[in-house]
Amino acid sequence: MSPHRITKSLLLCVSLIASVMWIASGTSSQSVDPGKANSVAAHGDDYIGSDACKDCHEDQFKAFSHTSHASLSTIGSWKGKVTGCEACHGPGKAHAEEGDPKKIVSFKNKSPKETSETCLTCHAGREEHNNFRRGEHWRNDIGCADCHSAHATSPAGKNVASSNVFVSPANREKPGFAAVKLLKVGEPQLCLSCHSEVKHQFNLPFHHKVLEGAMKCSDCHNPHGGFELKQTRLATGVDAACIKCHADKQGPFVYEHAPVKTEGCVSCHTPHGSANPRLLATSRVAQLCLTCHSNSHDVGAIEPAGPQHNLNAQYANCTNCHVKIHGSRSSPVFFR
Amino acid sequence: MKSKTKSILSVMAPACLILALAAMVTRAQQPTPTPKKAEPQAASVTEAGEDAGDYTIISSVEVGYRGLSVDGDLNKYRSDLNYKAGPRLFDSSFLMKSKDGKGGLFDSFLVTTTGWGADPNGQMRMSVEQPKWYRFDATYRRFKYFRFLNSFANPNWVFSPASFSRPPNPVTGEHGTDTRMKLGDFDLTLLPKDERIRFNVGYSPERYDGPAFINYRPGGNEFVLPNQVRSRANDFRIGADGKLGPIDFSFLQGFRRFRDDSVINVGPTLGTNLNPAAASLTSFTRDEPTRGSVNYTRLSLHSLIAKKFDITGRIVYSKATSTSSLAERFTGRNWNTRITGWPPTPPAATPNILNVGQYNITGETERPNTLGDIGITFFASDKLRISNTFRVEDFEIDGTAVFSNFFSITRGSGATLRTDTVGFNNLDATRITKYRKYQNTIEGDYQFNSRYSMHLGYRYGKRHIEEIFDGFNLGSNGSVTPPAVRTSDEFEVQNHTHAFFGGFKARPASNWTIYFDAERGTADNVFTRIGNYNYTNIRGKSRFALPGRKVSFTLAVITRNNSNPSEIAGVSLEDFGVDVKSRIFSSTLDWAPTSDFSFSAGYTHHRINSDAVVEYFFNSVRHPFGSSQYHQNNNFFFVDSVSRLHSRVTLYAAYRINKDIGQGSLLADPTGNPGTLIASYPMSYQSPEARLAIKLNHRLDWNIGYQYYNYNESALVGPRPQNYHAHLPYTSLRVYFGRRE
Is B70 helix (H, G, I), strand (E, B) or coil? Predict the structure, then answer.
């Protein structure tokens, strides 16, 4: 089947599913979005507005009032819908009148998934978050509130000395993207607080400059899920995240080194860091290449022929001659 | 001098911009201060930020000077770190937020920078938002790549006699680069918080240029050629996302255009083999202008139906094309074409004078690529969710090159000289790679209560790969003599993979969380032996915090076993084994007993052992079933501490070390039968760091610091150790706006 036919078939399927969803949704009597479905007009008696919360929850209110969550009430498409505290915590009138904590939605004893469901009522429709419910974090019961603070936090550091080469939250008056993305701590500290096992790789002689602040974990990974393994992002349509910056490896080449596209960059490289130059998976290039190019492995992976591939001479590193190993437009064996 | 001035300017300009911006806004807003309501505030909480009318500013800028002293291998130091001496903007941040969330032009304005000046990595990120109307995100990054490594690309090459060998040259190390990469991402979203529709446009430029060395092996010798790299790409995006009834949609159309204008233009050049009888160049030029495009379309749909079904569908289609035109022309001596029958004999092929050698090769390639995903989650109950994700991916790489060449060689023939020419025109070769993949994942997760949950799943994959060749097989370097006939070849491989996975999260106590997951997969065939085909991955993590959160402790154990006993091309399972084992043990401890002291430390052990059956030649002897081993045995330890020595003085001290003992006492036996190749990279890399921050006044800190890097590698790594010691003292001033006491 040609790619065009596949494209057409997929588009047809997606259209059909969309139609079914539309129709089904139209007949559905329920929606999970309290902020969208529960308009103030429809439930005016139960809702009292965020200002009423301020009296008792002043700190949370002050922090929240600086966030983009708080500004929804000024946006036309949100007019007449519940925004502010009650968008997540539900109607507050009974709670305010009786002071009963049971009369308001609290997230204290909810599981990460339950809390996340509240966030997803608004955020699930964004491309970035569409697949959160099928992502690695979801599987492992890591929810939105494990990384984000819906009420916003001040810069989390202390006014103390910190590293000169690595980004650090140590200086309180050094705000970062945590402040605008409602993150509890900025990257990469946030990610490393769980994924400490990769920290050593970013301290090896060759590494991507994540700890230095020139890159972020989320430049390559989508923490909100996604369809890719390891929650990596795609670049320029369907290419690997690496291609975003390493554009010269994108091709297409007349002679592609097929595994670059079929297996991915991580077949030969360790992206976080390595003692091996070029972030290669092994220290000697020849041994990496020979792993595939051996034993009549005839998938364009022909074994090195004859004595000219003598490992004790200048051919110890295959890329000395096969310099364009990712792909070439003029040499079947990547010589130029 | 000019570059120093430029360096100073590059540091000072952003610093001045941020300082001026902060001062200007602060000053401009002062005449109309917002009356403050007398509100009681908690004694322990002081609001951060400088009052600027309707806005609050929090900002800091650190400007200083870094010194540098390196003993040992400067090229390795520059390849690893590349920090230089000079003034720089260490980092800066500027956040301006409206007080009531109802700013005018913007509600929040954030700029952060690090590493501008003589540092190898500089970045600037910006985010400006007025939630009602727009959000603008920008990132600009600059990387200075420097690579001159002897151990990697310049092993001791020994020709016979040894005096013909060109020794490793730290100045012109093969594959050396001294290049710059500049990357930008600029994205504007209109109506960013609108529920119904949002529009976005984006632009991402990429520039890569600078000198680099590239190898080339024509005529029986190998040449290291200086290459002026120059490539660029521009990526434009436009899209919209929003809501149409119950369906959330996201649409993106992108266009990337790229070009490569790298050139090589050199005069007389000796090859790596200095034997006077070996080929040498008297001139060489190569020009291969390349133009390409990638047009891509992405459509995503999402809906939640009756609170029971979460459905996401995505389809991405991209079409990449490239065209290139290579013109390579060279002259030289003693050209050995290594093609039987040319030049015609007698006379002898060498010595000779290569009057001209020329390749003209045009290339055209297309790569249409389609990716479709659909994920459905069924909410069976409040606690049980069942999901299915299906993917299909299809691409085809269709490349055609058309070859032409011409050679003219003059040789002695008896007492006279004889000139022979050979060439051909317009011989084509086409290679097609077809790829199709189906993958389906079904999984379920169950939430017992807020403390315990588990998940289980199964993933099936099927791949079909086909490679087709048709045309003139022009050998390793584009034959001098034309192939007699067209040939064609076809290969296809198909495999099926089955993977089961599952895991759980448990919180036995409110301050203790355990994560565990595992995956076991098998495949019936392989395309490359380095993929995951018969594997078991296990991951366990534990996070523990003492009440009050003054001490927290994390532990992680990750194991990966990947063996590849699959059959391919009729080779038996035993003969085709690849085994890779990876073990990671990691632990960290964070302790902050008081607000004046904090301490964190960690240890990670990472071991990789791989063993593959390979075929290799050593001393011209074929070893068809040799063993190829790679060993990594790395230990990483770090400690960070911060102490407040005085109300105005804090001290940061840190130490990090990676020490890889590699293969240990194992030794390669490449001449044995079947023979063993062993690779590892035993080295140690450590960096203590200290910094004293002294608060001079409310707005100013003076910092003085020192960093030290020590790299040592084993003699196993290369012909000579590339060890170095680097001392990097620095001093800086950090200026604050809106500092909190």
Answer: strand
Nearest Cα to Cα of residue A251 among A322, A329, A319: A329
The beta-carbon neighbor of A252 closest among B195, B366, B730 is B366
Say which residue the tokens 């999970």 belong to: A32
Residue length, chain A?
336
Q: Which residues contact B135 (CB under 8 A, 6 or more apart)?
A: B127, B128, B129, B188, B189, B192
Å between A155 CA and nearest CA of chain B: 9
Instruction: Give the CA angle between residues A243, A2, B524 to the nearest 5°.
Output: 70
Q: How far apart are CA B733 and CA B741, in angstroms?
A: 18
Which residues, at least 6 apart from B363, have a Cβ–Cβ distance to it below 8 Å? A253, A254, A329, A330, B322, B323, B324, B325, B326, B399, B400, B401, B402
Q: Which two tokens stand for residue B242?
A: 């929003």
How far is residue B350's CA from residue B346's CA, in Å, rounded to a whole number?
Answer: 11
How far does the CA of residue B153 sit from the closest CA of chain A (Å)?
7
Cα B373 from chain centroid?
26
The string of DSSP letters for A165-231 reads SS--S--TT---HHHHTTBSS-TTHHHHTT-GGGGGGGGSSEE-STTTTSS-HHHHB-TT--SSGGG
Would you state the structure tokens that stand for residue B3, as one six-digit string? 């570059």
Contact A153, A184 (CB under 8 A): yes
Answer whether B677's CB lies under 8 Å from A310's CB. Answer: no
Instruction: Pinpoint the alpha helices (H) of chain A.
Output: 3-27, 34-37, 51-54, 58-64, 85-89, 93-98, 112-123, 136-139, 144-147, 177-180, 189-192, 217-220, 258-262, 285-292
Query: What Å distances lie between residue A216 and A49, A123, B672, B700, CA to CA?
Result: 38, 22, 47, 29
Cα B295–chain centre separation: 23
Smallest CA-to-CA distance from B292 within A241, A260, A253, A261 is with A253
Q: Give residue-wise pLDDT tens across range B493-529.
A: 888 999 999 999 999 998 999 999 999 999 887 777 7
Cα distance between residue B127 and residue B186, in whole Å: 10
A119 touches chain B (CB under 8 A): no
Q: Is the peptide bond before B682 cis (omega within 30 degrees of 0)?
A: no
Is residue B302 a contact partner of residue B247, using CB atoms and an 8 Å limit?
yes
Minimal CA separation from B525 to chain A, in Å: 12
**Closest chain A residue to B677, measured at CA:** A287
Q: For testing the chain B interface, which of A200, A232, A315 should be mutated: the one with the most B CBs within 10 Å?
A: A200
Decide if A238 and B389 are in contact by the 8 Å CB cutoff: no
Q: What is the DSSP letter of B163?
A: G
pTM of the model: 0.88
User: Each residue of B309-343: pLDDT tens digit?
Assistant: 999 999 999 999 999 999 999 999 988 765 444 66
- Does the pLDDT of residue A9 top 70, yes or no? no
Q: What is the pLDDT of residue A35?
A: 37
In a mutational test of the B interface, the residue from A60, A263, A312 whose CB has the highest number of chain B CBs within 10 Å is A312
| A49/B contact by beta carbon, under 8 A | no
Q: Which of B201-205, B257-261, B612-616, B728-732 has the lowest mean pLDDT?
A: B612-616
Q: Which of A172, A238, A284 sits opposite B48 (nearest CB)?
A: A172
- Using an 8 Å CB-CB cutoff, list chain B residues near A290: 612, 614-616, 628, 677
B487-509 and B309-333 beta bridge pairing: unpaired
Instruction: Please classify residue B37 by burial: count the beta carbons closer than 10 Å to its beta carbon, then call 0-12 exposed, 13-18 middle and 19+ buried.
Output: exposed
Identify the closest residue of chain B to A67 by CA–CA distance: B101
Tokens of A276: 């091996």
* Token pair in block for residue A208: 């991507």
Residue among B122, B527, B614 minimizing CB distance to A262: B527
The answer, yes or no, to whether residue A26 has pLDDT greater than 50, is no
CA torsion, points A121, A122, A128, A131, in degrees to nearest 10? 10
